[in-house]
Amino acid sequence: MKTVPFWKDDVSRPAKLPSHVPPREVDVAIVGGGYTGLHAALRLAKQGISVAVLEQGQIGNGASAVNGGQVAPGLKLPIQKIFQKYGPELGRQLWDGSIAAVEHLEQTLTAEQIACDYTGGGGIALAYRPSHYDAMVKDAEWLARELDFQHVEVVPRERLREEVGSDVYYGGLIEPMGGGLHPAKYVYGLAQATARAGACLCEHTKALKISRSAGNAGFQVTTGRGAIKAGQVLMATNGYTDDLVKAIQRRIFTVGSYMITTAPLSPSMQRELSPKNRVMYDTKWFLNYFRLTPDGRMSMGGRNDLSSGLDLIESARNLGEALVRIFPHLKGVPITHSWTGQLGLTFNVMPYIGQVDGIYHAFGYAGHGVALSGYLGKEVADLISGQSSASPFTRISPETSVFYHGRAWFLPVVASYYRFLDAVS
After folding, report:
1. At a CB cut-off of 8 Å and minimum separation 6, what does 105 contact?
2. H-helix or E-strand spanning residue 290
């Protein structure tokens, strides 16, 4: 078994992916070369704005090349809770934004001719308990009544084998939008498109300090490869946000997620496990998410801890046991890859676009970042360029804790609580 991400092991870095020398001056400097930073850079470059993407490692070193590749509408916080907290007007705008995020991703794949094995088959949420299925029925009714969203389909347990080759779940909710993609191919293709548009991709360029220029005329970004003068700065680091800007770091914390893949399965086994080839996830607090890879493996992600530093051999064993409980047919099938990545969560579990001392930031996707991150990248780019004056994601007030200063000491307590909820729900 390899303790490296399957997606990066499966595809080589494109030979034509350029890595530029950092320019001395740009209109916009973007810290972070993942989905958010690249989408923002692509949007800005196409408007004729000079932009440099500052990536401390290589493109694809963060979550963008190692995630589950699941594309779906919606946010981490259930939409009904969003309506209760933020009101129906903003709640509707945020929901529409999550739909637009999927559409934006699909439009980008087409416009930029990014070949990333996108399935487009939608996804299904799987009820871990009977009460979870009852909630799905009510959710579907609410979506139809309040949002006129008629697209979801509730699947009772007796029909669930049409969707998933498992008997452990009590029903499902099909969302036909979205699908699965190869995340490494996606981020590499996106980076190539961004470079073609004229953006500078500066790899191995760690931002060390951001300071105001004399007279508050823009910023100076000090990097390990020299200083860059920038009119505007965007922090697009999500789950890899450090103390570069401490006030921004205090708005987000990191959670680990772990993944495995099996050896390739026979075509008949693939059809047995995932007849419609949808992306799938369950309703546990410590949820599992799984799907077939383009070459016919079963990939699965999840956790029973929120730490980002667990042993990959142990996490593979735990995930492998969970996978066999869901799909007994996979007993004895080798696990070929085990790896981890980091999610970014805000204290209100909502993604948002904000500013601290004039420095833009967009993050907090909480596991929904494959679609949302690119869309918020586009949204913040339009705010920076003046193409837009507002986004619903700027109306989310950032939250933090007086006891949080960059080290998420509270995660073990939260993890214990989640394990308790999964046991008693």
Report:
1. 71, 370, 371, 374, 375
2. strand 289-292
Domain membership of residue 153 (yes or no) is: yes
Nearest alpha-carbon partner for 28 in 9, 1, 5, 47 = 47
* Adjacent-strand bridge partners of 29: 52, 233
* Angle (nearest 5°) at CA 71 between 158 and 387: 145
The token pair at 69 is: 């590749």
In our burial notation (b when 16+ CB lie closer than 10 A, e otherwise), range 91-105 reads: bbbbbebbbbbbebb
CA distance 241 to 254: 8
**Residue 161 placed within a domain:** yes
Range of the domain at 156: 123-176
Confidence of residue 295 (pLDDT cuts 50, 70, 90): very high
User: Which one, of 201, 180, 323, lies nearest residue 258 by Cα?
Assistant: 323
157's CB contacts (< 8 A; 6+ apart) are: 133, 169, 170, 171
Q: How far apart are CA 184 and CA 190, in angstroms?
A: 10
Residue 165 lies in a domain: yes
State the pTM of this model. Answer: 0.96
What's the whole-number average pLDDT of the chain? Answer: 95
Q: Which residues contact 386 (CB under 8 A, 6 or more apart)?
A: none
Q: Specify the number of domains making up the chain.
A: 1
d(CA 186, CA 109): 8
